[in-house]
Amino acid sequence: MSNASRGELAQVFAALGDGVRLQLISRLLAAGALSATALAGGETISRQAIVKHLQVLESAGLVTHSRQGREVLYALDARRLQEARAYLDAVSSHWDASLERLRKLVDS
User: Fold this and answer.
1) In this structure, what is the dihedral angle of CA atoms 42, 43, 46, 48, given to the nearest 10 degrees?
2) Residue 66's domain is classified under what CATH number?
3) What predicted TM-score, i.e. pTM, was given to this entire model?
4) Domain tally for the chain?
Protein backbone atom coordinates (compact mmCIF):
# COMPACT_ATOMS: atom_id res chain seq x y z
CA MET A 1 0.00 0.00 0.00
CA SER A 2 1.05 3.64 -0.26
CA ASN A 3 2.57 5.86 2.41
CA ALA A 4 -0.88 7.22 3.31
CA SER A 5 -2.79 5.56 6.12
CA ARG A 6 -6.19 4.03 5.49
CA GLY A 7 -7.82 6.91 7.34
CA GLU A 8 -6.06 9.46 5.15
CA LEU A 9 -7.07 7.58 2.03
CA ALA A 10 -10.65 7.31 3.24
CA GLN A 11 -10.68 11.07 3.75
CA VAL A 12 -9.38 11.58 0.18
CA PHE A 13 -12.03 9.30 -1.31
CA ALA A 14 -14.75 10.95 0.78
CA ALA A 15 -13.62 14.39 -0.39
CA LEU A 16 -13.63 13.23 -4.00
CA GLY A 17 -17.10 11.74 -3.57
CA ASP A 18 -18.80 15.05 -4.31
CA GLY A 19 -19.38 16.35 -7.83
CA VAL A 20 -18.61 19.97 -6.95
CA ARG A 21 -15.31 19.01 -5.37
CA LEU A 22 -14.39 16.86 -8.37
CA GLN A 23 -15.10 19.85 -10.60
CA LEU A 24 -12.91 22.05 -8.41
CA ILE A 25 -10.08 19.51 -8.64
CA SER A 26 -10.45 19.46 -12.43
CA ARG A 27 -10.37 23.24 -12.66
CA LEU A 28 -7.30 23.50 -10.42
CA LEU A 29 -5.58 20.78 -12.42
CA ALA A 30 -6.25 22.61 -15.69
CA ALA A 31 -5.64 26.19 -14.58
CA GLY A 32 -3.24 26.01 -11.65
CA ALA A 33 -3.77 28.10 -8.53
CA LEU A 34 -7.02 30.07 -8.45
CA SER A 35 -8.93 32.16 -5.95
CA ALA A 36 -12.28 31.05 -4.56
CA THR A 37 -13.86 33.90 -6.53
CA ALA A 38 -12.37 32.61 -9.77
CA LEU A 39 -13.44 29.08 -8.92
CA ALA A 40 -16.97 30.26 -8.19
CA GLY A 41 -17.21 31.91 -11.60
CA GLY A 42 -19.61 29.99 -13.79
CA GLU A 43 -20.86 27.86 -10.91
CA THR A 44 -24.42 27.83 -9.64
CA ILE A 45 -23.32 27.88 -6.00
CA SER A 46 -21.98 30.76 -3.96
CA ARG A 47 -18.37 31.67 -3.33
CA GLN A 48 -18.90 30.78 0.35
CA ALA A 49 -20.04 27.29 -0.64
CA ILE A 50 -16.97 26.95 -2.86
CA VAL A 51 -14.76 27.93 0.10
CA LYS A 52 -16.40 25.23 2.24
CA HIS A 53 -15.72 22.64 -0.47
CA LEU A 54 -12.12 23.86 -0.71
CA GLN A 55 -11.77 23.45 3.08
CA VAL A 56 -12.87 19.80 2.76
CA LEU A 57 -10.35 19.28 -0.03
CA GLU A 58 -7.65 20.96 2.03
CA SER A 59 -8.46 18.81 5.08
CA ALA A 60 -8.00 15.76 2.88
CA GLY A 61 -4.62 17.06 1.72
CA LEU A 62 -5.75 17.57 -1.88
CA VAL A 63 -5.54 21.37 -1.95
CA THR A 64 -3.26 23.94 -0.37
CA HIS A 65 -3.78 27.66 -0.05
CA SER A 66 -1.45 30.63 -0.04
CA ARG A 67 -2.05 34.30 0.43
CA GLN A 68 -0.97 36.77 -2.24
CA GLY A 69 -1.77 40.21 -0.94
CA ARG A 70 -5.47 40.24 -0.13
CA GLU A 71 -6.21 37.22 -2.28
CA VAL A 72 -6.11 33.59 -1.19
CA LEU A 73 -5.09 31.20 -3.95
CA TYR A 74 -5.90 27.50 -3.87
CA ALA A 75 -3.70 24.96 -5.64
CA LEU A 76 -3.94 21.25 -6.19
CA ASP A 77 -1.52 19.10 -4.19
CA ALA A 78 -1.27 16.01 -6.35
CA ARG A 79 0.53 13.87 -3.75
CA ARG A 80 -2.71 12.64 -2.16
CA LEU A 81 -4.15 11.88 -5.60
CA GLN A 82 -1.02 9.88 -6.39
CA GLU A 83 -1.37 7.96 -3.12
CA ALA A 84 -5.04 7.24 -3.89
CA ARG A 85 -4.06 6.11 -7.37
CA ALA A 86 -1.37 3.80 -5.94
CA TYR A 87 -3.93 2.30 -3.58
CA LEU A 88 -6.41 1.73 -6.41
CA ASP A 89 -3.64 0.20 -8.53
CA ALA A 90 -2.82 -2.21 -5.69
CA VAL A 91 -6.49 -3.19 -5.34
CA SER A 92 -6.74 -3.62 -9.10
CA SER A 93 -3.63 -5.80 -9.14
CA HIS A 94 -5.08 -7.94 -6.35
CA TRP A 95 -8.33 -8.42 -8.29
CA ASP A 96 -6.44 -9.17 -11.51
CA ALA A 97 -4.46 -11.89 -9.71
CA SER A 98 -7.63 -13.31 -8.16
CA LEU A 99 -9.41 -13.40 -11.51
CA GLU A 100 -6.40 -15.05 -13.13
CA ARG A 101 -6.42 -17.77 -10.45
CA LEU A 102 -10.15 -18.27 -11.07
CA ARG A 103 -9.59 -18.45 -14.84
CA LYS A 104 -6.88 -21.10 -14.36
CA LEU A 105 -9.18 -23.07 -12.07
CA VAL A 106 -12.04 -22.94 -14.58
CA ASP A 107 -9.74 -23.88 -17.46
CA SER A 108 -8.35 -26.94 -15.67
Assistant:
1) -100
2) 1.10.10.10
3) 0.79
4) 1
